[in-house]
Design a protein that fits this description.
elongated; single chain; 7-stranded antiparallel β-sheet; 5 helices; mainly beta; 6-stranded mixed β-sheet; Immunoglobulin-like
């Protein structure tokens, strides 16, 4: 079962939280009484592009604004407070509070506080967002508790979980009277940056030259273990083909940027090698995993499929390497996978995480039947998706002229993920 939220409740995509902060934009919410007359106002300044957008904040921003109250309409308030809170809501689980910072703006019990008079009064406030939040601890002191980065806002229609940020003004009225709250939704999108490319790849980007492959630039590539595929070729004989995937370091990539790939195919059977080293036979995807529950922060969370929701969110494409003629029972290919500009950044927090991995699946080619049919990847390489690239680094495509990215399918629907509710593994 998925949480089905109205699309209008999903935070809009914001992509400009990096760099210098522009002149803050003011957003105002108000609370009305039973006759439709406003008596409580909450104004907040943020990075949002317009006053119609939800207030937007980034790393360690200070939430500033004012709370204004019409005493004549407020019903003799006893206290006024302001709170920034963040919560995680997941299917079948209680809401989990990730962040709660409160400040009392006015209290009738404080002898130094001014008495409220007829008319409107206002109080400024400022609350600085932390970079990190403590993890749930068992018997450990706060000083020794581990932390994790404050996660971004997250909400997707039909998703299994969402993370909400809110600014709440609370008017307390005393015993036997209900409190009144004015809630203003916030969007929190911390800036995360990809690490700079390795030295030789940085030089290639700067000079506009070809990339150096794993053999010539070992520090610039993460070479995975080789994976063997066994199958029958043209109903005639059994063949073995071996694949070795290399992914450009560092293993972090800004959304909207390409990930360079290198793939080596090896076989003693020349005909199988020719058939199964063609770009069209390759199946390499970017797989996104949403992990729920107590194992969300575990690196091996993918093994617990009952709480792991996976989908393909990108497709790699390949072209033959021009580094010499094919020989020695091997073929080399270059490849790229474009991380979509609207991708959600990677994050982990208690109870929920969003992770990405490159997954190389068995090849598909007419005349070849693999011995084992599986959707399990031959090779999987974890990567991090960030909101921004390394400072001063522009990552261009190195595909030859005439190559275009493959047309992306709607993977979620194609896999029956939402309709069936039982698709967990890719």
């Amino acid at each position: 079962m998925a949480i089905d939220r109205d699309a209008s409740q999903c935070p809009p995509e914001y992509t400009d939280t990096g760099g210098e902060r522009a002149e803050p934009v003011k957003y105002t919410a108000q609370l009305e009484n039973g006759t439709g007359k406003a008596w409580l106002w909450l104004t907040v300044e943020s990075r949002a592009k317009s006053p119609k957008q939800r207030p937007l904040f980034a790393n360690a921003d200070t939430v500033r604004g004012t709370v204004e109250i019409d005493y004549g309409q407020a019903g003799k308030p006893k206290e006024l407070s302001i709170t920034v809170r963040a919560s995680l809501t997941a299917v079948g689980q209680e809401e989990e509070r990730l962040l709660c910072i409160s400040k009392t703006l006015w209290s009738g019990k404080d002898p130094s506080a001014p008495k409220l008079a007829a008319g409107r009064s206002n109080w400024p406030f400022s609350i600085t967002l932390p970079d990190e939040i403590p993890l749930p601890s068992s018997g450990r002191s706060k000083a020794s508790s581990p932390t994790c980065p404050l996660p971004p806002s997250f909400s997707e229609k039909g998703g299994p979980a969402y993370i909400e940020y809110q600014l709440v003004a609370t008017v307390r009225r005393g015993l036997f009277k209900s409190n009144q709250t004015l809630v203003c939704p916030l969007v929190y999108l911390p800036v995360t940056r990809a690490e700079p490319p390795a030295r030789l790849r940085m030089a290639a980007y700067r000079d506009g030259t070809a990339l150096v492959g794993p053999d010539g630039d070992p520090e610039g590539w993460k070479v995975g273990p080789s994976a063997k595929v066994t199958g029958t070729l043209f109903d005639a004989r059994q063949v073995d083909v071996e694949y070795t995937l290399a992914v450009a370091r560092p293993l972090s990539c800004a959304r909207g940027s390409p990930i360079p790939l290198s793939l080596t195919v090896a076989s003693d059977d020349e005909q199988a090698l020719d058939l199964l080293s063609t770009p069209a036979s390759m199946n390499l995807y970017l797989v996104r995993s949403r992990v729920l529950g107590q194992h969300a922060m575990s690196e091996d969370a993918g093994a617990r499929s009952d709480q792991v929701f996976q989908e393909r969110v990108g497709t790699a494409y390949f072209w033959p390497s021009d580094a010499g003629s094919p020989s020695g029972g091997k073929r080399a290919l270059w490849g790229e996978l474009l991380v979509k500009p609207d991708s959600k950044p990677s994050f982990v927090c208690p109870g929920f995480s969003l992770r990405y991995a490159l997954a190389l699946l068995p090849p598909e080619a007419a005349g070849f039947v693999p011995k084992i049919h599986t959707n399990e990847p031959l090779v999987a390489q974890k990567i991090a998706v960030t909101t921004a690239g390394a400072p001063g680094v522009s990552v261009p495509s190195h595909a030859p002229p005439g190559y275009t990215y493959p047309e992306e399918a709607d993977y979620t629907n194609a896999l029956g993920y939402l309709e069936n509710g039982n698709q967990r593994r890719v």
